Target: Phospho-2-dehydro-3-deoxyheptonate aldolase
Amino acid sequence: MSNNIEQAAWTPDSWKTKPIKQDVVYDNPEELSTVLTRITNMPPLVSASEIERLRAQLKDVAEGRAFLLQGGDCAESFDYCNPTAIEDKLKVLLQMSLVLLWGLRQPIVRIARMAGQYAKPRSSPFETVDGKQIMSYRGDNVNSIDPAARRPDPQRLISAYLHSAATVNYVRMLLAAGFADLHRPEAWDLGHVRNPSIRREYQSIVNRLTDSLGFMDVIGATGQTAVSTVDLYTSHEALLLDYEQALTRPVAKATQTQARRGAYEPATPPRNRLAPELCDFYNMSAHFIWIGDRTRQLDGAHVEYFRGVRNPVGVKVGPTMDAAELVRALGILDPLLEPGRVTLITRYGADKIAKYLPAHIEAVLATKHQPVWCCDPCHGNTTTAPSGHKTRSFDAIISEITDSISIHQQLGSRLAGVHLELTGEHVTECTGGSMELSHLDLPSNYQTFCDPRLNYEQSLDIAFKIAKVFETQREESHIS
Model:
Protein backbone atom coordinates (compact mmCIF):
# COMPACT_ATOMS: atom_id res chain seq x y z
CA MET A 1 0.00 0.00 0.00
CA SER A 2 1.54 3.29 -1.07
CA ASN A 3 1.99 6.11 1.43
CA ASN A 4 0.67 8.44 -1.29
CA ILE A 5 -2.58 6.57 -1.78
CA GLU A 6 -5.33 8.63 -3.37
CA GLN A 7 -8.05 9.42 -0.82
CA ALA A 8 -11.70 9.89 -1.68
CA ALA A 9 -13.36 13.17 -0.71
CA TRP A 10 -13.92 13.44 3.03
CA THR A 11 -17.18 14.45 4.72
CA PRO A 12 -18.17 14.18 8.39
CA ASP A 13 -20.15 11.02 7.56
CA SER A 14 -17.81 9.39 5.02
CA TRP A 15 -16.73 7.02 7.80
CA LYS A 16 -20.05 5.23 7.30
CA THR A 17 -18.73 3.80 4.02
CA LYS A 18 -15.97 1.95 5.89
CA PRO A 19 -15.96 -1.16 8.09
CA ILE A 20 -16.20 -0.28 11.77
CA LYS A 21 -14.93 -1.91 14.95
CA GLN A 22 -16.36 -1.49 18.45
CA ASP A 23 -19.68 -0.24 17.08
CA VAL A 24 -22.72 -0.09 19.34
CA VAL A 25 -25.96 -1.63 18.06
CA TYR A 26 -29.11 0.04 19.38
CA ASP A 27 -32.44 -1.74 19.27
CA ASN A 28 -34.30 1.49 18.48
CA PRO A 29 -32.69 3.29 15.50
CA GLU A 30 -35.42 5.95 15.46
CA GLU A 31 -34.67 6.94 19.05
CA LEU A 32 -30.96 7.09 18.23
CA SER A 33 -31.64 9.34 15.24
CA THR A 34 -33.72 11.69 17.40
CA VAL A 35 -30.98 11.88 20.03
CA LEU A 36 -28.25 12.58 17.46
CA THR A 37 -30.33 15.33 15.86
CA ARG A 38 -30.71 16.94 19.26
CA ILE A 39 -26.95 16.78 19.93
CA THR A 40 -26.23 18.17 16.45
CA ASN A 41 -28.29 21.24 17.37
CA MET A 42 -26.61 21.75 20.75
CA PRO A 43 -23.74 24.23 21.26
CA PRO A 44 -20.17 22.96 20.86
CA LEU A 45 -18.23 22.05 24.00
CA VAL A 46 -14.95 23.69 22.89
CA SER A 47 -14.04 26.36 20.37
CA ALA A 48 -12.07 26.33 17.15
CA SER A 49 -9.69 28.97 18.49
CA GLU A 50 -8.89 26.77 21.50
CA ILE A 51 -8.22 23.82 19.19
CA GLU A 52 -5.95 26.01 17.05
CA ARG A 53 -4.07 27.10 20.16
CA LEU A 54 -3.49 23.46 21.07
CA ARG A 55 -2.35 22.73 17.50
CA ALA A 56 0.28 25.46 17.86
CA GLN A 57 1.41 24.16 21.25
CA LEU A 58 1.71 20.57 20.02
CA LYS A 59 3.80 21.87 17.12
CA ASP A 60 6.15 23.22 19.78
CA VAL A 61 6.14 19.82 21.49
CA ALA A 62 6.93 18.00 18.24
CA GLU A 63 9.78 20.40 17.50
CA GLY A 64 11.34 20.03 20.95
CA ARG A 65 10.26 23.29 22.58
CA ALA A 66 7.66 21.90 25.02
CA PHE A 67 6.54 18.67 26.74
CA LEU A 68 3.12 16.99 26.80
CA LEU A 69 1.39 15.77 29.96
CA GLN A 70 -1.84 13.88 29.29
CA GLY A 71 -3.72 12.09 32.05
CA GLY A 72 -6.98 11.13 33.67
CA ASP A 73 -9.35 8.24 34.22
CA CYS A 74 -9.41 5.08 32.12
CA ALA A 75 -13.14 5.63 31.67
CA GLU A 76 -15.04 8.44 33.32
CA SER A 77 -18.24 7.77 35.21
CA PHE A 78 -21.10 10.25 35.21
CA ASP A 79 -20.66 10.18 39.00
CA TYR A 80 -17.24 11.81 38.58
CA CYS A 81 -18.97 14.99 37.46
CA ASN A 82 -18.85 16.60 40.90
CA PRO A 83 -16.74 19.46 42.27
CA THR A 84 -14.45 17.35 44.46
CA ALA A 85 -13.56 14.80 41.77
CA ILE A 86 -12.95 17.51 39.17
CA GLU A 87 -10.83 19.61 41.54
CA ASP A 88 -8.76 16.60 42.62
CA LYS A 89 -8.02 15.61 39.03
CA LEU A 90 -7.20 19.17 38.03
CA LYS A 91 -4.97 19.63 41.07
CA VAL A 92 -2.83 16.55 40.44
CA LEU A 93 -2.35 17.46 36.76
CA LEU A 94 -1.34 21.01 37.67
CA GLN A 95 1.03 19.86 40.40
CA MET A 96 2.61 17.30 38.08
CA SER A 97 3.07 19.96 35.42
CA LEU A 98 4.74 22.24 37.97
CA VAL A 99 7.27 19.52 38.80
CA LEU A 100 7.89 18.79 35.11
CA LEU A 101 8.26 22.50 34.36
CA TRP A 102 10.99 22.70 36.98
CA GLY A 103 12.79 19.58 35.76
CA LEU A 104 12.58 20.09 32.00
CA ARG A 105 12.81 23.90 31.90
CA GLN A 106 10.21 23.83 29.14
CA PRO A 107 6.52 24.77 28.85
CA ILE A 108 4.17 21.90 29.70
CA VAL A 109 1.14 21.29 27.49
CA ARG A 110 -1.64 19.85 29.68
CA ILE A 111 -4.36 17.61 28.25
CA ALA A 112 -6.86 15.90 30.55
CA ARG A 113 -8.60 12.61 29.82
CA MET A 114 -11.71 14.38 30.99
CA ALA A 115 -15.13 15.74 30.02
CA GLY A 116 -15.93 13.03 27.49
CA GLN A 117 -13.91 9.86 28.26
CA TYR A 118 -17.11 7.87 28.83
CA ALA A 119 -16.80 5.09 26.23
CA LYS A 120 -14.99 1.82 26.87
CA PRO A 121 -13.77 -0.54 24.12
CA ARG A 122 -14.19 -4.22 24.92
CA SER A 123 -12.59 -7.40 23.64
CA SER A 124 -16.00 -9.12 23.66
CA PRO A 125 -19.57 -7.80 23.35
CA PHE A 126 -20.61 -10.14 26.17
CA GLU A 127 -19.37 -11.06 29.62
CA THR A 128 -20.39 -13.52 32.31
CA VAL A 129 -21.74 -12.15 35.61
CA ASP A 130 -22.95 -14.53 38.33
CA GLY A 131 -22.99 -17.37 35.83
CA LYS A 132 -25.13 -15.47 33.31
CA GLN A 133 -24.01 -14.10 29.94
CA ILE A 134 -24.95 -10.45 29.59
CA MET A 135 -23.89 -7.54 27.40
CA SER A 136 -20.53 -6.08 28.34
CA TYR A 137 -20.35 -2.73 30.05
CA ARG A 138 -19.35 -0.27 27.31
CA GLY A 139 -19.08 2.92 29.34
CA ASP A 140 -21.60 5.31 30.87
CA ASN A 141 -22.48 6.85 27.51
CA VAL A 142 -23.69 3.43 26.27
CA ASN A 143 -25.03 1.38 29.17
CA SER A 144 -24.78 0.98 32.94
CA ILE A 145 -22.28 -0.84 35.11
CA ASP A 146 -25.37 -2.34 36.74
CA PRO A 147 -25.80 -5.84 35.21
CA ALA A 148 -29.56 -5.24 35.10
CA ALA A 149 -29.17 -2.20 32.80
CA ARG A 150 -26.85 -3.30 30.01
CA ARG A 151 -29.15 -2.42 27.11
CA PRO A 152 -27.46 0.30 24.99
CA ASP A 153 -29.52 3.42 25.66
CA PRO A 154 -29.35 6.34 23.18
CA GLN A 155 -30.45 8.75 25.92
CA ARG A 156 -27.09 8.19 27.57
CA LEU A 157 -25.49 10.13 24.71
CA ILE A 158 -27.48 13.17 25.85
CA SER A 159 -26.28 12.53 29.39
CA ALA A 160 -22.69 12.29 28.13
CA TYR A 161 -23.00 15.65 26.42
CA LEU A 162 -24.53 17.31 29.51
CA HIS A 163 -21.96 15.84 31.93
CA SER A 164 -19.14 16.86 29.57
CA ALA A 165 -20.54 20.39 29.34
CA ALA A 166 -20.83 20.67 33.13
CA THR A 167 -17.27 19.42 33.60
CA VAL A 168 -15.83 21.79 30.99
CA ASN A 169 -17.74 24.69 32.52
CA TYR A 170 -16.47 23.95 36.02
CA VAL A 171 -12.86 23.58 34.84
CA ARG A 172 -13.11 26.92 33.03
CA MET A 173 -14.50 28.52 36.20
CA LEU A 174 -11.73 27.09 38.40
CA LEU A 175 -8.98 28.27 36.07
CA ALA A 176 -10.53 31.70 35.65
CA ALA A 177 -10.74 32.02 39.44
CA GLY A 178 -7.00 31.39 39.83
CA PHE A 179 -7.06 27.71 40.82
CA ALA A 180 -3.75 27.31 38.97
CA ASP A 181 -2.13 30.49 40.37
CA LEU A 182 1.54 29.67 40.91
CA HIS A 183 1.75 32.63 43.32
CA ARG A 184 -0.42 30.70 45.81
CA PRO A 185 1.44 27.48 46.70
CA GLU A 186 -0.48 27.33 49.96
CA ALA A 187 -3.58 26.50 47.90
CA TRP A 188 -1.85 23.30 46.70
CA ASP A 189 -2.26 21.11 49.77
CA LEU A 190 0.59 18.65 50.32
CA GLY A 191 -1.04 17.01 53.30
CA HIS A 192 -1.63 13.75 51.47
CA VAL A 193 2.01 13.40 50.44
CA ARG A 194 2.88 11.12 53.34
CA ASN A 195 6.45 10.38 52.36
CA PRO A 196 8.53 13.10 54.12
CA SER A 197 11.34 13.16 51.54
CA ILE A 198 8.91 13.65 48.62
CA ARG A 199 7.08 16.37 50.55
CA ARG A 200 10.33 18.23 51.28
CA GLU A 201 11.56 17.94 47.69
CA TYR A 202 8.23 19.08 46.25
CA GLN A 203 7.98 21.97 48.72
CA SER A 204 11.50 23.00 47.74
CA ILE A 205 10.50 23.09 44.07
CA VAL A 206 7.38 25.13 44.82
CA ASN A 207 9.36 27.56 46.95
CA ARG A 208 12.03 28.09 44.29
CA LEU A 209 9.44 28.58 41.57
CA THR A 210 7.40 31.09 43.54
CA ASP A 211 10.56 32.97 44.54
CA SER A 212 11.51 33.19 40.85
CA LEU A 213 8.03 34.36 39.87
CA GLY A 214 8.04 36.94 42.65
CA PHE A 215 11.36 38.29 41.42
CA MET A 216 10.04 38.45 37.85
CA ASP A 217 7.00 40.39 39.04
CA VAL A 218 9.18 42.87 40.93
CA ILE A 219 11.28 43.65 37.86
CA GLY A 220 8.21 43.69 35.60
CA ALA A 221 9.34 40.72 33.52
CA THR A 222 5.91 39.11 33.50
CA GLY A 223 2.30 40.04 33.97
CA GLN A 224 -0.17 38.58 36.40
CA THR A 225 -2.12 36.82 33.64
CA ALA A 226 0.90 34.86 32.46
CA VAL A 227 1.36 33.03 35.76
CA SER A 228 -2.07 33.04 37.39
CA THR A 229 -3.73 30.64 34.98
CA VAL A 230 -2.83 27.92 32.50
CA ASP A 231 -4.21 26.27 29.40
CA LEU A 232 -5.82 22.90 30.08
CA TYR A 233 -7.34 20.95 27.22
CA THR A 234 -9.84 18.09 27.16
CA SER A 235 -9.52 14.78 25.36
CA HIS A 236 -11.06 11.36 24.93
CA GLU A 237 -10.91 8.28 22.76
CA ALA A 238 -13.33 9.05 19.92
CA LEU A 239 -14.99 5.64 19.92
CA LEU A 240 -18.66 6.35 19.16
CA LEU A 241 -18.53 7.98 15.75
CA ASP A 242 -22.23 8.85 15.60
CA TYR A 243 -21.73 11.06 18.66
CA GLU A 244 -18.47 12.50 17.34
CA GLN A 245 -20.09 13.34 14.00
CA ALA A 246 -22.95 15.12 15.77
CA LEU A 247 -20.40 17.45 17.39
CA THR A 248 -18.31 17.94 14.25
CA ARG A 249 -18.86 21.49 13.08
CA PRO A 250 -17.75 23.47 10.01
CA VAL A 251 -15.91 26.70 10.70
CA ALA A 252 -15.22 29.27 8.01
CA LYS A 253 -11.57 29.15 6.99
CA ALA A 254 -9.59 31.84 8.74
CA THR A 255 -7.93 34.62 6.83
CA GLN A 256 -4.26 35.16 7.56
CA THR A 257 -5.15 38.10 9.80
CA GLN A 258 -7.71 36.05 11.75
CA ALA A 259 -5.27 33.18 12.12
CA ARG A 260 -2.60 35.48 13.56
CA ARG A 261 -4.96 36.77 16.24
CA GLY A 262 -6.62 33.40 16.88
CA ALA A 263 -10.05 34.36 15.54
CA TYR A 264 -12.06 31.54 14.01
CA GLU A 265 -15.65 32.33 13.15
CA PRO A 266 -18.32 29.62 13.43
CA ALA A 267 -20.20 28.85 10.27
CA THR A 268 -23.57 30.48 9.84
CA PRO A 269 -26.51 28.02 10.02
CA PRO A 270 -27.80 26.14 8.20
CA ARG A 271 -24.42 24.46 8.49
CA ASN A 272 -25.04 21.83 5.83
CA ARG A 273 -25.22 24.56 3.16
CA LEU A 274 -21.72 25.87 3.75
CA ALA A 275 -19.49 24.95 0.81
CA PRO A 276 -16.90 22.42 2.05
CA GLU A 277 -14.03 24.23 0.35
CA LEU A 278 -14.79 27.35 2.41
CA CYS A 279 -14.58 25.71 5.80
CA ASP A 280 -12.57 23.44 8.08
CA PHE A 281 -14.26 20.78 10.17
CA TYR A 282 -13.56 20.62 13.90
CA ASN A 283 -14.62 17.97 16.37
CA MET A 284 -15.97 20.25 19.08
CA SER A 285 -16.61 17.53 21.65
CA ALA A 286 -12.98 17.92 22.82
CA HIS A 287 -9.75 19.66 21.92
CA PHE A 288 -7.86 16.41 21.29
CA ILE A 289 -9.15 12.98 20.29
CA TRP A 290 -7.36 9.69 19.78
CA ILE A 291 -7.82 6.35 18.04
CA GLY A 292 -7.51 3.30 20.25
CA ASP A 293 -5.42 0.20 19.62
CA ARG A 294 -8.56 -1.76 18.68
CA THR A 295 -9.91 0.72 16.09
CA ARG A 296 -6.83 1.92 14.14
CA GLN A 297 -7.42 -0.21 11.00
CA LEU A 298 -6.14 1.78 8.00
CA ASP A 299 -9.23 0.97 5.94
CA GLY A 300 -11.59 1.39 8.89
CA ALA A 301 -14.19 3.93 9.91
CA HIS A 302 -12.19 5.56 12.70
CA VAL A 303 -9.12 6.37 10.60
CA GLU A 304 -11.46 7.69 7.90
CA TYR A 305 -13.21 10.01 10.36
CA PHE A 306 -9.98 11.21 11.98
CA ARG A 307 -8.26 12.14 8.73
CA GLY A 308 -10.77 14.89 8.01
CA VAL A 309 -11.04 16.82 11.29
CA ARG A 310 -8.70 19.70 12.03
CA ASN A 311 -8.14 18.74 15.67
CA PRO A 312 -4.76 17.36 16.63
CA VAL A 313 -5.21 13.60 16.91
CA GLY A 314 -3.55 10.69 18.67
CA VAL A 315 -2.98 7.08 17.64
CA LYS A 316 -2.25 4.28 20.09
CA VAL A 317 0.78 2.29 18.90
CA GLY A 318 1.57 -1.12 20.37
CA PRO A 319 3.29 -4.43 19.64
CA THR A 320 0.65 -5.42 17.07
CA MET A 321 1.46 -2.47 14.76
CA ASP A 322 4.32 -3.06 12.37
CA ALA A 323 6.55 -0.21 11.24
CA ALA A 324 5.20 -0.08 7.68
CA GLU A 325 1.63 0.18 8.98
CA LEU A 326 2.66 3.06 11.26
CA VAL A 327 4.13 4.97 8.33
CA ARG A 328 0.98 4.41 6.27
CA ALA A 329 -1.17 5.63 9.16
CA LEU A 330 0.87 8.84 9.31
CA GLY A 331 0.46 9.24 5.55
CA ILE A 332 -3.31 9.12 5.90
CA LEU A 333 -3.63 11.28 9.02
CA ASP A 334 -0.85 13.78 8.29
CA PRO A 335 -0.69 14.22 4.49
CA LEU A 336 0.45 17.84 4.81
CA LEU A 337 3.41 16.94 7.06
CA GLU A 338 2.33 19.27 9.87
CA PRO A 339 4.52 19.00 12.99
CA GLY A 340 2.41 17.92 15.98
CA ARG A 341 -0.68 17.08 13.93
CA VAL A 342 -0.39 13.45 15.11
CA THR A 343 0.62 12.22 18.55
CA LEU A 344 1.94 8.66 18.61
CA ILE A 345 0.91 7.21 21.98
CA THR A 346 3.15 4.17 22.41
CA ARG A 347 2.01 1.35 24.70
CA TYR A 348 4.18 -1.75 24.74
CA GLY A 349 4.83 -2.93 28.29
CA ALA A 350 8.11 -2.69 30.17
CA ASP A 351 9.16 -6.12 28.94
CA LYS A 352 8.43 -5.39 25.26
CA ILE A 353 9.45 -1.77 24.66
CA ALA A 354 13.07 -2.58 23.71
CA LYS A 355 11.82 -5.04 21.10
CA TYR A 356 9.28 -2.80 19.32
CA LEU A 357 9.97 0.91 19.91
CA PRO A 358 13.30 1.17 18.00
CA ALA A 359 11.80 -0.07 14.73
CA HIS A 360 8.89 2.35 15.06
CA ILE A 361 11.20 5.29 15.71
CA GLU A 362 13.51 4.42 12.81
CA ALA A 363 10.57 4.05 10.41
CA VAL A 364 9.21 7.48 11.30
CA LEU A 365 12.64 9.13 11.18
CA ALA A 366 12.94 7.90 7.60
CA THR A 367 9.88 10.02 6.67
CA LYS A 368 9.24 13.76 6.79
CA HIS A 369 6.57 13.44 9.48
CA GLN A 370 7.15 15.13 12.85
CA PRO A 371 4.75 13.51 15.30
CA VAL A 372 4.70 13.97 19.05
CA TRP A 373 6.17 10.83 20.63
CA CYS A 374 4.23 10.14 23.81
CA CYS A 375 4.67 7.17 26.17
CA ASP A 376 1.63 5.42 27.64
CA PRO A 377 3.33 3.23 30.27
CA CYS A 378 0.08 2.01 31.82
CA HIS A 379 -1.81 -0.17 29.34
CA GLY A 380 1.02 -2.58 28.59
CA ASN A 381 1.75 -3.20 32.27
CA THR A 382 -1.62 -4.43 33.55
CA THR A 383 -1.55 -7.65 35.58
CA THR A 384 -3.86 -9.55 37.92
CA ALA A 385 -3.04 -9.65 41.63
CA PRO A 386 -3.50 -12.82 43.72
CA SER A 387 -6.68 -11.22 45.09
CA GLY A 388 -8.12 -11.06 41.56
CA HIS A 389 -7.79 -7.28 41.27
CA LYS A 390 -6.42 -5.83 38.03
CA THR A 391 -3.36 -3.81 38.94
CA ARG A 392 -0.21 -2.17 37.61
CA SER A 393 3.27 -2.03 39.05
CA PHE A 394 4.71 1.44 39.64
CA ASP A 395 8.19 0.07 38.94
CA ALA A 396 7.09 -1.32 35.55
CA ILE A 397 5.48 2.01 34.65
CA ILE A 398 8.66 3.93 35.54
CA SER A 399 10.77 1.38 33.67
CA GLU A 400 8.81 1.84 30.45
CA ILE A 401 9.07 5.64 30.70
CA THR A 402 12.82 5.70 31.38
CA ASP A 403 13.52 3.08 28.70
CA SER A 404 11.49 5.14 26.24
CA ILE A 405 13.52 8.27 27.05
CA SER A 406 16.76 6.34 26.61
CA ILE A 407 15.78 4.60 23.34
CA HIS A 408 14.65 7.85 21.77
CA GLN A 409 17.88 9.56 22.79
CA GLN A 410 20.02 6.74 21.39
CA LEU A 411 18.26 6.93 18.01
CA GLY A 412 18.37 10.72 17.69
CA SER A 413 14.70 11.14 18.56
CA ARG A 414 12.99 12.58 21.64
CA LEU A 415 10.28 11.38 24.00
CA ALA A 416 8.04 14.43 24.10
CA GLY A 417 5.23 13.41 26.43
CA VAL A 418 3.55 10.93 28.76
CA HIS A 419 -0.03 9.64 28.73
CA LEU A 420 -1.16 8.32 32.12
CA GLU A 421 -4.25 6.79 33.66
CA LEU A 422 -4.46 8.53 37.01
CA THR A 423 -6.77 10.07 39.56
CA GLY A 424 -6.37 12.81 42.15
CA GLU A 425 -7.97 10.52 44.72
CA HIS A 426 -6.13 8.37 47.24
CA VAL A 427 -7.09 5.02 45.79
CA THR A 428 -5.18 1.74 46.07
CA GLU A 429 -5.23 0.32 42.56
CA CYS A 430 -1.55 0.27 41.50
CA THR A 431 1.23 -1.22 43.59
CA GLY A 432 4.52 0.44 44.54
CA GLY A 433 5.53 4.08 44.60
CA SER A 434 6.66 6.05 47.65
CA MET A 435 3.65 4.69 49.57
CA GLU A 436 5.05 1.19 48.96
CA LEU A 437 1.63 -0.28 48.30
CA SER A 438 1.57 -4.07 48.00
CA HIS A 439 -1.00 -6.49 46.60
CA LEU A 440 -2.35 -6.79 50.13
CA ASP A 441 -3.23 -3.07 50.14
CA LEU A 442 -5.35 -3.17 46.96
CA PRO A 443 -8.72 -4.02 48.59
CA SER A 444 -8.47 -1.13 51.07
CA ASN A 445 -9.60 1.53 48.58
CA TYR A 446 -9.97 -0.11 45.16
CA GLN A 447 -12.59 1.98 43.36
CA THR A 448 -12.07 1.65 39.61
CA PHE A 449 -14.74 -0.06 37.50
CA CYS A 450 -12.32 -0.11 34.56
CA ASP A 451 -8.50 -0.22 34.61
CA PRO A 452 -6.32 0.55 37.66
CA ARG A 453 -5.16 4.15 38.04
CA LEU A 454 -2.16 5.79 39.63
CA ASN A 455 -3.25 7.57 42.79
CA TYR A 456 -2.39 11.12 43.82
CA GLU A 457 0.98 10.37 45.39
CA GLN A 458 2.06 7.86 42.74
CA SER A 459 1.26 10.45 40.06
CA LEU A 460 3.53 12.99 41.77
CA ASP A 461 6.19 10.28 42.07
CA ILE A 462 6.04 9.82 38.29
CA ALA A 463 6.46 13.55 37.70
CA PHE A 464 9.45 13.75 40.06
CA LYS A 465 11.21 10.81 38.42
CA ILE A 466 10.68 12.15 34.87
CA ALA A 467 11.87 15.58 35.97
CA LYS A 468 14.99 14.08 37.56
CA VAL A 469 15.89 12.14 34.40
CA PHE A 470 15.66 15.22 32.21
CA GLU A 471 17.41 17.39 34.79
CA THR A 472 20.31 14.93 34.85
CA GLN A 473 20.46 14.92 31.05
CA ARG A 474 20.54 18.71 31.02
CA GLU A 475 23.35 18.88 33.59
CA GLU A 476 25.40 16.26 31.72
CA SER A 477 25.02 18.18 28.46
CA HIS A 478 26.31 21.35 30.17
CA ILE A 479 29.36 19.47 31.49
CA SER A 480 30.15 17.94 28.10
